[in-house]
């Protein structure tokens, strides 16, 4: 028996209630922001996922005292003794997540030095960090690329600057925010990303004493301040996990109530869900959430183009494609955020789906990847009867989509590599059990 394999007996609808907590893509950044304060910070609703463990480990290596609070998911961070960490110890986390690159600004302000191990994260494209480094250099950082990682200093401190991102990168926007809040002078960031997780990070930084103006047309202006205090914050709910369960409800013909889910961050997803033929009901009460279900009848083929916010989020794409294998007609998917995020469709085809991938920009909007040999569009012909097949999980969201496909398929599949799913989905095995799925460890 290994914890990395799940045996999935598919073919029955998922039905029941599960709960989502703080967003993976906010919580990890909020934890890094705690480094910037002079006093302790407190975060609620932190999910027990691998990315949180990694960032906790990195903070502790830098002398931050991280303690569990009284409530489940409550974490406190005391940054009063931040110190330089041992490179060998930091490198234990090499290749495990993308978050270490965001330590640059806070560590440069606290210590004048940052060592950043090689990054991990999903293998869905080249995922360069050129925008991050360019912005940091413009602010006065000196970046030395060493065989074991990036060695970064700021001999004269970080200075405010005017910087325009070539593409509204989430991580690079967060990099600039975390570096500029305590830089000397004003920073103007143009073509910034404005994802809800970024707005929530800005809310946290404001609680800490930062002065950040979000203007129209993707312009963010940050006035550097001399000191920041700790924060207390309840993060926005995880809109990617929510969409994943919503897609699972649709693909299996089920009915899932996602407690904690919030409509505001999911408008584009909910529009597509309606067009496909899914049903949802919003419960706005403080303990509310969103119920997602398959109302019966046929699902309809759609055009789905991923984009930066407020577009259809790329991390929603993979789970939703499994539901699209059940829709009548030809659905078109155009992935415009990552150049290699459709490889997982091979496994869906092995399970009986009919998905053809293309290098061209299908769907109407030419993107950065057109005419560059990247297989980034797909046509899905449905509905297809999915049949069990063993699958190996390649990355986080593809992993969840393979799991959904196995749940929707007739027969028993083995899903290998489920540890990868733990990077972003808290307690997913318990949640599957709560939804009546028939799964067991392999
Ligand atoms: C931990 C986290 O929050 N991860 C999310 C974050 O990833 P992440 O912050 O890594 O994603 P980015 O928004 O930076 O990447 C978007 C695109 O910009 C390109 N790029 C980015 C930076 C750079 O310096 N140079 C460059 O070319 C990337 O290769 C990619 O094609 O936003 C993505 C887009 O919503 C989500 O899919 C990820 O779940
Ligand atoms: C791409 C993702 O995450 P990361 O940036 O952490 O690899 C994701 O959450 O789907």
UniProtKB/TrEMBL annotation:
Pathway: Cell wall biogenesis; peptidoglycan biosynthesis. InterPro entries: Enolpyruvate_Tfrase_dom (IPR001986), Enolpyruvate_Tfrase_sf (IPR036968), MurA_subfamily (IPR050068), RNA3'P_cycl/enolpyr_Trfase_a/b (IPR013792), UDP_GlcNAc_COvinyl_MurA (IPR005750). Residues 9-432 form the Enolpyruvate transferase domain. One of its GO terms (biological process) is peptidoglycan biosynthetic process. It is found in: Cytoplasm. The modification 2-(S-cysteinyl)pyruvic acid O-phosphothioketal is found at residue 122. The keyword tRNA processing does not apply. Gene3D superfamilies: Enolpyruvate transferase domain (3.65.10.10). Its EC number is 2.5.1.7. UDP-N-acetyl-alpha-D-glucosamine binds at residues 98, 315, 337. Pfam families: EPSP_synthase. The keyword Ligase does not apply. One of its GO terms (cellular component) is cytoplasm. One of its GO terms (molecular function) is UDP-N-acetylglucosamine 1-carboxyvinyltransferase activity. Phosphoenolpyruvate binds at residues 24-25. The active site is at 122 (proton donor). It is an enzyme of class 2 (transferase). It catalyses: phosphoenolpyruvate + UDP-N-acetyl-alpha-D-glucosamine = UDP-N-acetyl-3-O-(1-carboxyvinyl)-alpha-D-glucosamine + phosphate. Keywords: Cell cycle, Cell division, Cell shape, Cell wall biogenesis/degradation, Cytoplasm, Peptidoglycan synthesis, Pyruvate, Transferase. Cell wall formation. Adds enolpyruvyl to UDP-N-acetylglucosamine. Belongs to the EPSP synthase family. MurA subfamily. HAMAP family: MurA. This is UDP-N-acetylglucosamine 1-carboxyvinyltransferase.
């Amino acid at each position: 028996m290994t914890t990395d394999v799940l045996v999935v007996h598919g073919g029955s609808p998922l039905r029941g209630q599960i709960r989502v907590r703080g967003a993976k893509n906010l919580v990890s950044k909020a934890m890094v922001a705690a480094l910037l304060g002079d006093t302790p910070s407190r975060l609620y609703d932190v999910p027990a996922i691998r990315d949180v463990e990694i960032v906790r480990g990195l903070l502790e290596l830098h002398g931050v005292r991280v303690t569990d609070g009284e409530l489940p998911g409550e974490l406190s961070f005391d940054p009063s003794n931040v110190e330089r960490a041992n490179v060998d110890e930091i490198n234990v986390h090499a290749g495990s997540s993308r978050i270490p690159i965001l330590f640059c600004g806070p560590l440069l302000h606290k210590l004048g030095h940052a060592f950043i191990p090689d990054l991990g994260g999903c293998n869905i494209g080249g995922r360069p960090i050129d925008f991050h480094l360019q912005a940091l250099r413009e602010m006065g950082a000196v970046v030395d690329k060493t065989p074991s990682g990036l060695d970064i200093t700021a001999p004269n401190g970080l200075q405010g600057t005017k910087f325009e991102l070539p593409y509204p990168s989430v991580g690079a926007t967060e990099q600039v925010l975390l570096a500029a809040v305590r830089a000397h002078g004003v920073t103007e960031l143009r073509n910034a990303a404005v994802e809800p997780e970024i707005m929530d990070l800005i809310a946290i930084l404001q609680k800490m004493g930062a002065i950040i103006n979000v203007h129209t047309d993707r312009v963010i202006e940050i006035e550097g301040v001399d000191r920041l205090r700790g924060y207390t914050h309840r993060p926005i709910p995880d809109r990617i996990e929510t969409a994943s369960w919503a897609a699972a409800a649709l693909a299996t013909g089920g009915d899932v109530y996602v407690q904690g889910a919030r409509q505001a961050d999911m408008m584009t997803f909910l529009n597509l869900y309606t067009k496909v033929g899914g049903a949802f009901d919003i419960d706005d009460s403080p303990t509310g959430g969103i119920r997602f279900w398959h109302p019966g009848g046929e699902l309809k083929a759609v055009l789905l183009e991923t984009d930066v916010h407020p577009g259809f989020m790329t991390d929603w794409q993979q789970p939703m494609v499994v539901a699209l294998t059940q829709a009548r007609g030809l659905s078109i998917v155009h992935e415009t955020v990552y150049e290699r995020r459709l490889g997982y469709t091979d496994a869906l085809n092995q399970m009986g789906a009919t998905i053809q991938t293309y290098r061209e920009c299908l769907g109407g909007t030419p993107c950065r990847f057109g005419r560059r040999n990247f297989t980034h569009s797909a046509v899905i012909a449905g509905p297809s009867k999915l049949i069990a097949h063993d699958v190996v999980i390649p990355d986080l969201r593809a992993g969840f989509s393979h799991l959904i496909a196995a749940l929707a398929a007739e027969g028993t599949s083995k899903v290998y590599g489920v540890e990868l799913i733990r990077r972003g989905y808290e307690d997913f095995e318990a949640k599957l059990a709560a939804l009546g799925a028939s799964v067991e460890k392999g």
